[in-house]
Amino acid sequence: MTELKQYRISARSAAELVSSIEEGVAGGRLLPGERLPSVRRLAADVGLSPVTVAAGLAELRRRGVVLTEPRRGTRIGQGAPIGSLRRPLPVPPGARDLSRGNPDPALLPDLRRALGRSELPVRLYGEPPALAELLDLVRDQLCADGIPGQAVCIVGGALDAIERVFGAHLRPGDRVAVENPGYAALYDLLRALGLTLEPVRVDDRGMRPGELGAALARGACAVVITPRGQNPTGATLDRARARELSEVLEEFPHALVIEDDHLGEVAGSPLHTTVGGRERWAATRSVAKALGPDLRLAALAGDPQTVARVQGRQQCGPGWVSNILQTIVLGLSTDPAVQAQTARAAATYAERRERLLACLAYRGVKAHGASGLNVWVPVDDEAGAVGALMQRGWVVAAGQPYRLAGSPSAVRVTTATLLADEAERLAGDLADVLAPAGFSRSG
What we know:
15% strand; Aspartate Aminotransferase, domain 2; alpha/beta; three-stranded antiparallel sheet; eight-stranded mixed sheet; 443 residues; Arc Repressor Mutant, subunit A; Aspartate Aminotransferase, domain 1; 3 domains
């Protein structure tokens, strides 16, 4: 947006410039991805000096409201930390929405049954923040995957855990090595915290060790690694890659390492960890994809100091995660019927993902999806591909929010609900959309 036709920014100071742009975002009149004028052009529009405008934009950039990238200028962040009246774009009637990364509701456990069977507790102030039985279960699961479980706490989801760990150790301006492409919500969270993103490219086996070493050598003091089911590419660490990354990390013993196992048991691949023997580390495991996104609960393991700091900060805020929620998660996690359903879900997700990959490969379309719920398809023109697929009845996610500098264009397809006949049709439509345009002549 170079002319700002939808919203006129007005300001008499850097602070008012910040407020004006925030008001535009909050009112849904400045949209994610919209480009702002250059500093000089915006200065002329509002009647301020370029130095004053640059100061205002720097403050917005520090808090993650706007992004500035070489050759792309300054634009509104995809997940700017400002509550907005903007509603998501509606899905066209009859279209299949494969854009949101959701699990298949049909493969989630019946919460009504769980509520009917659970004896819900009445928790009062001053009681322990976590159920001992749930902590024991989490420790057993983590230890089975080679993750130390001596220090564990319960938090309100994987991103809540990550935010609290960063708050315990980092300060605004610190550099964090992140996967590229990677989880868009994580990028938004780091920007909102004033942290600087150091992109590390991934392949189908996860972070590239040499690039991780280079990011740490440039000053990154923390790294976030997805061990399996990486969003958006589906990358998963195998034993050899996890060992290679661990060897790189050994050269930087003071770096904070966070592993985000957001898919857990439904990732479709075993977990190979990189946190063993670290001085500062944390590992999250969420129940959102296996038991349901509305169950905002995750376990956080880590070194004793990190977990103690997270618990202390939690005590200063919400205090604890609802014991009712913990009881429901414990009941579901120990129910043999739910365990069997989770195993079926993992197998079904793998089958659906692999079917689309096979259909695409048959048509000569390159794609990635070693594990998880998504397939990442490289494209030359994201907007064109998304628009053309929507015309054919498919809603997919543009890759731009998931990419940092150095990552080529792509689209993300969530395969969690994609049936066999749909995979065939979608692969055919993707092949048609991505085929080189033929020569045509009009008279």
